[in-house]
Amino acid sequence: MFSKKNSKFVALTLLATLLFAAALTMSANAQTQATVTILDSVGGTTDPAAGTYQYNDGQVVTLTATPDTDNAFQNWIISTPGATLNDPNPTTTVTVAAGTTYTIQAIFQAISILPNVPYAPFVAGTDAVIGILASAGGTTNPPAGLYYLTDATAFNLTATAASGWQFSHWVISGPNLSHGGYPYTATPTDNPYNVNHGYGNRYDYQAVFTPVGSTEPTPIGGATATPAPGMGGLSTDTWIIIALVIVIVIILIGFGVYAMRKK
Questions:
Q1: 82: CB partners within 8 A, 6+ apart
Q2: DSSP-assigned letters across all residues of 29-80
Q3: Residue 232 to residues 34, 107, 228, 236, 238: CA-CA distances in angstroms?
Q4: What φ, ψ does residue 180 adopt, rounded to 5°?
Q5: Could you read off the pLDDT of 158-167 as tens digits, one per residue?
Q6: Which of 22, 46, 99, 185 has a Cα at 20 to 30 A from 260?
């Protein structure tokens, strides 16, 4: 029969073994799966819905954002430890990496009607969505905001420079489409500018002002952030699990040495 000391030793060894097995399982899962948390959104819904999901390493996750009435999709915010990416596509994909935690949220923006335009319910498939971005050195008419038009053929966007500034050009961003069949450039200098573009799509307009007497600045594109790996290419969570496994192994060795000395 076992003594009380032996019984305690066996119980502790069994507990340590179970902890060790659990840690190995957690480590294996952490190294082969990614955790994706999708946050709630105001102004629309997402597919997958809000919640936390586990995906295998290298799996492609498709994200779809659907705005509610009188709202428009703005962008996805996709965050990993050390990096954040904004994706303007309502339907996009993310290829997940094992051991990485992703936090994702769809951002929607309320749409207003333009001043002096009778109200009509927004129809996402056929109405022109116009995003007017704030500018330094002047103002626009209409002011910064998100608007929609059933008919944009006669709408003109006007830029007014502040004192000491001059209007340079517009910057237009949006889907790579034909702009509703209306010829345009991405940096037009017309002022006012006739906003006639692809219906059922969103385009953003920003006025660029420069100090009086200066030359037009050259646009500089921003770099896309990429997730920063943890030490040795592994995530922080993976290193924590590895450390836990090492501690458990040390405990088991200590029990073994203790038992041998008792004999």
A1: 227, 228
A2: HHHHEEEEEEPP-SSEEEESPSEEEEEETTPEEEEEEEE-TTEEEEEEEEEE
A3: 18, 34, 11, 10, 11
A4: 70, 20
A5: 999 999 999 9
A6: 22
Supply 29's token pair: 């899962």
> Which pair of structure tokens corresponds to residue 124?
């996402």
| The dihedral sign for the CA sequence 8, 12, 13, 14 | positive
pLDDT in tens, 193-213: 888 776 777 888 999 999 998
Residues found in the chain: 263
Angle at 123 between CA 127 and CA 112, to 5 degrees: 75
Beta carbons of 132 and 147 less than 8 angstroms apart:
yes
Can you give the pTM of this predicted structure?
Answer: 0.58
With contact defined as beta carbons under 8 Å apart, do 109 and 41 qualify? no
Residues in Cβ contact with 236 at an 8 Å cutoff, skipping those fewer than 6 apart:
81, 230
Burial class (CB in 10 A: 0-12, 13-18, 19+), 93: exposed
For residue 233, what are its two tokens? 């290419």
Q: How many other CB atoms sit within 10 Å of the CB of residue 218?
A: 5
| Beta strand pairing call for 101-110 and 71-80 | antiparallel
